[in-house]
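for the writeup, i need someone to sanity check this before i put it in the appendix. the sequnce is what the collaborator sent (i think, or maybe the updated version? ugh). structure was predicted straight from it, no edits. if anything looks off just tell me and ill rerun, i have time this weekend
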Amino acid sequence: MTDPLLHALVALLGERYAEPGAAAGARLSDKHQRYHGKARAFVRPASTEQVAAVVRLCAEHAACVVVQGGNTGLMAAATPDDSGRAVLVSLERMNAIREVDTANDTLTAEAGCILRQVQLAAEGAGRLFPLSLGAEGSCTLGGNLGTNAGGTAVLRYGNARELTLGLEVVTAEGEIWHGLRGLRKDNTGYDLRDLYIGSEGTLGIITAATLKLYPLPASRATAYVAFASLADGVALLAHARAGFSAALTGFELMAADCLALVAEQFPGSVLPFDRLTQPWYALLEVSYHGDHADAVALMERVLEGALEQGLITDASLAQSVAQSHAMWQLREHMSEAQAREGRNMKHDISLPLSRIEAFVASTAVQLQAQFPGVRHYTFGHLGDGNLHYNIASPRGMSVAAHMARYHALSRVVHDNVHAHGGSISAEHGIGQRKRDELPRYKSTVELGLMRRIKRALDPHNRLNPGKVIALENDTL
């Protein structure tokens, strides 16, 4: 063993949990194999104290640190660069539920917990942890917090930042901030919690969090609705919010082409309507604290009003838990359906609800003018303005030829997002994939403030360098 850093890491963690970087294997690449890196060492600490000790050793040996959870992110934020300077830190062994406090409606969990594990721990205590997304069976809490994950219940409960009360964080110096407070009011200075959430491992390493819990709904009602335009969809959302109030927990948008693609790629799927006669559809869910019959009656009443106002042309209500599950499967299979058809260009964007229709219409016109025949697969969380605006290759064009135009095509999409007052990243983060796009869409003041924060909390650019924001003249 010739590397003194690896020798010190083995002395700290043992040979089983401190290995040469090559031992990381597939973890050295991102989920979609777009980015590939190297690591000086690969470590799996079991406690916050060990994480802090690893960071201190890296500081002593002029190494940087890249932290990784489930490696399910889409922006390659957890992939080291190819310099081989980084120690890749997996938090997979830090997977304990430390406490469930039903009196305070909080749960404290370590960052390596799989999201589904956190959900089940809450359910076991008769509570709900509402963060829910497609990768919940493999993504980790630390990654959810590092990217400020959203998912399907943001409309009612907010994203990861809104669901978190306290954090435990290892700083760039290897200190530990013990901030696991289960307080809903704590006005004692700068909100460090919100600074670390969404920072993608560039400001500190989140090792545990205290999360908000909610009562488990007694019943749910689920429905698909069809409508003629996005303007009608936005008006329907306002109508649903007024009619359901806080009971409205899901409002998921899918274009007709998306539903057709899911049915094609998953032959056992059952569409909510015999024919897809409208260009747009939405999946609505109501979480209710009364009995199921009351939830269904409320759904029927609100949707009847939408029909009378001409906001929707048809509706299909789930009549059983199995039907509700089948409806959600249509939404949850969307990403996999695209993958089965072939790689496409994914854009995770957010827009003011009032600008969504104009954005979709104008962007489609520009894309067809410059890239004739491209196919649009638009779906997402309409309730919070988050669209997954995905572009597939024209019929007959190879996927490779289509993806070669990624930067030119995405420039059209992102420029239009910006022109309509939106954001080029809604819930996936920036990582390294969108890092160089930020200067085009953020002001010099914003970028300057971000760089000052990074340099203040990580003056040697030791934590996840090269991600989120580019720093000039920074060396380890």
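The radius of gyration is 23 Å. The longest helix spans residues 292-308.
thx in advance!!
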